[in-house]
Write a structure and sequence with these properties.
The protein has 4 helices and 11 strands. It has helices at residues 2-20, 24-27, 36-45, 58-61; strands at 53-54, 75-76, 82-83, 87-90, 99-106, 112-119, 124-132, 137-144, 149-156, 162-168, 173-176. It has one domain (23-176). A hairpin with a 4-residue loop joins strand 6 and strand 7 (124-132). By secondary structure, the protein is α+β, with helices and mostly antiparallel strands.
């Protein structure tokens, strides 16, 4: 019994430490640890945004429902994996490197915006794409033809509409897809 109590104390301590360093939405089980690559990517590549913007917190996720995560995991990424509505990934500019998109929240006002980290092979350019609301979501929209597969960014708005963005080769920026 004595050995078991040491193990239990050790396990509880490790789990407690782990949750201290995760974003608030992780702490109550709203999102899965599989989403850690999205969090790590933002921490590593979004440093210029950290002082002004933040990832979603527990309150933001309440808009997507918290009943056993039934609404949170309804959007998909480029591989068809279900994920939270506040981030997604895909090779949006077709350069062979995965790009990432986020809905981030302004620290001072809590206003939301869609940001896309577009690869330029060696680094990422950060593009503020659109204003959003905390009830909006983003996902990867896959457009297949006989010869190509294109990854488009779909912005799901609160009023049940969607705006689909594609990378404009000539414009070198996102344009609204028709």
């Amino acid at each position: 019994m004595h050995d078991f109590s040491k193990y239990l104390v050790f396990t509880v301590s490790i789990v407690s430490l782990m949750f201290m360093y995760l974003p608030p939405a992780f702490s109550n089980g709203l999102i899965k640890l599989d989403d850690e690559p999205y969090i790590a990517f933002f921490k590593n590549h979004g440093k210029e945004l950290h002082s002004k913007y933040t990832l979603p917190n527990e309150g933001h996720f309440s808009f997507w429902g918290t009943d056993r995560n039934t609404y949170i995991y309804k959007t998909t990424d480029d591989a068809g994996n279900y994920k939270p509505p506040y981030w997604t990934k895909g090779d949006f500019n077709f350069d062979g490197v995965v790009d990432r998109a986020y809905i981030l929240f302004e620290r001072a006002t809590d206003k939301a915006s869609v940001f896309v980290f577009v690869s330029s092979r060696e680094t990422y350019d950060i593009i503020r794409l659109a204003s959003a609301s905390e009830a909006d979501g983003i996902c990867t929209y896959i457009q297949e033809t006989e010869k190509t597969v294109k990854y488009l960014l779909k912005h799901l708005t609160f009023d049940s509409h969607a705006i689909v963005y594609k990378w404009g080769y000539e414009e070198k920026k996102f344009v609204i897809s028709e």
